[in-house]
């Protein structure tokens, strides 16, 4: 059971721009919503799963992007840009090793020249930029190899975890479809209503963000 804004996110649309190898890249933002941290799963080497509820009930924000990222390198560059924006805005200290910034990476491949993506796989709770890059590269290779050898049907919609020691992704659970999550209204929680004046006040209170500062120093 997890409380989430679901169909009434606090933000929709928008984009984040960043540079990689001298080229500007834009990633669209689908939505930003508040949800409850349900706790932390710890999976031991002997196959035992533990649950840490110390953070349970704490509010967090989830940022969902459009499928605009085309490589592990782009994913890392995007996350570094996002981290700098969150830090400059004093939204989070972004200490990944302490869990204040985490990444769930979705990856799917497609045949060259095709526009439709194949089955999506989620890699859960990556806690460093280095491991994000490694996990995406390994999962891309796994899916590509299966497709190349005619076993693309073995790519399932599922959640996988990254085993850094073994250098591979591993199945955690089969991913359910949206209707299987059984969303229903929480009658004891009132809606969050942000007035236009509140949004404008927050916008004007923002400090100078990294891109603006970079441009200002470049123009001096």
Characteristic key phrases:
ligase, 4-stranded antiparallel beta sheet, alpha+beta, ATP-binding, 4-stranded mixed beta sheet, protein biosynthesis, 10 strands, Gln-tRNA_amidoTrfase_suB_CS
Alpha carbon gyration radius:
19 Å
Give unreliable regions as ranges.
none
Mean pLDDT: 89
Shape: globular
The helicity comes to 25-40%
Oligomer: single chain
Q: Number of DSSP helices?
A: 4
Compute the number of strand runs. Answer: 10
- From N to C, what is the helix and strand string? EEEEEEHEEHEEHH
Q: How many angstroms separate the termini? A: 53 Å
Q: What can be said about the biggest beta sheet?
A: 4 strands, antiparallel
Q: What structural class results from the helix and strand content?
A: alpha+beta
- Approximate strand percentage: 25-35%
Produce a short descriptive summary.
By secondary structure, the protein is α+β, with helices and mostly antiparallel strands.
Characterise this structure.
The protein is an alpha+beta fold and 220 residues long. Helix content is 26%, strand content 28%. The strands form 3 sheets. Strands 1, 2, 3 and 6 form a 4-stranded antiparallel β-sheet that branches. The longest helix has 20 residues, at 129-148. The termini are far apart. The mean pLDDT is 89. Pfam families: GatB_N (PF02934). InterPro entries: Asn/Gln-tRNA_amidoTrfase_suB/E, Asn/Gln-tRNA_Trfase_suB/E_cat, Gln-tRNA_amidoTrfase_suB_CS, Gln_synth/guanido_kin_cat_dom. Residues 1-199 form the Aspartyl/Glutamyl-tRNA(Gln) amidotransferase subunit B/E catalytic domain. Keywords: ATP-binding, Ligase, Nucleotide-binding, Protein biosynthesis.
């Amino acid at each position: 059971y997890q409380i989430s804004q679901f169909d009434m996110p606090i933000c929709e649309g928008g984009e984040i721009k960043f540079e990689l190898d001298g080229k500007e890249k834009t990633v669209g933002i689908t939505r930003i919503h508040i949800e409850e941290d349900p706790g932390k799963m710890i999976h031991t080497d002997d196959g035992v799963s533990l649950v840490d509820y110390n953070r349970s009930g704490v509010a967090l924000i989830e940022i969902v992007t459009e499928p605009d990222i085309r490589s592990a390198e782009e994913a890392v560059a995007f996350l570094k840009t996002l981290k700098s924006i969150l830090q400059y805005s004093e939204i989070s200290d972004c200490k990944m090793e302490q869990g204040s910034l985490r990444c769930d990476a979705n990856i799917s491949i497609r045949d060259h020249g095709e526009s439709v993506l194949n089955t999506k796989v989620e890699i859960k709770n990556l806690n460093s930029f280095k491991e994000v890059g490694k996990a995406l590269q390994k999962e891309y290779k796994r899916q590509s190899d299966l497709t190349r050898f005619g076993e693309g049907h073995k790519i399932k919609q599922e959640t996988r975890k990254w085993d850094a020691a073994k250098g591979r992704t591993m199945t955690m659970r089969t991913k359910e479809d949206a209707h299987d999550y059984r969303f229903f209204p929480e009658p004891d929680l009132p809606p969050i209503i942000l007035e236009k004046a509140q949004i404008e006040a927050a916008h004007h209170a923002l400090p100078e963000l990294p891109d603006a500062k970079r441009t200002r120093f470049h123009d001096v």
